[in-house]
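Supplementary notes for students who missed Thursday's class. We covered one full example, reproduced here. Read the sequence, then the structure, then the short commentary at the end.
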Amino acid sequence: MWIGGLNGPSFVGKAEITKDAAVVDKILTDYPKKYTMKALVGPSRENFESGDRIAIRITPVKHMPADFSSAPGTPAPAL
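Structure (token representation):
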């Protein structure tokens, strides 16, 4: 995963589906800030409660060197 863009910091992480209310709240707060034009059609609490949307928590496991690069379809770096 790259943060901010293809040249931003990158890391390998562990992803897990979560129903943690704090994670859902963070998504509902941050989504309209990042996607202002899509805020009217973005996720709602009801979407998460019904299962139409899911929240995914990504925990960094290994930070990659600043010059790390990858290409679509290539295997993930070894942990």
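Commentary. The chain has a mean pLDDT of 85. Helices lie at 21-34, 45-50. If anything here is unclear, bring it to office hours.
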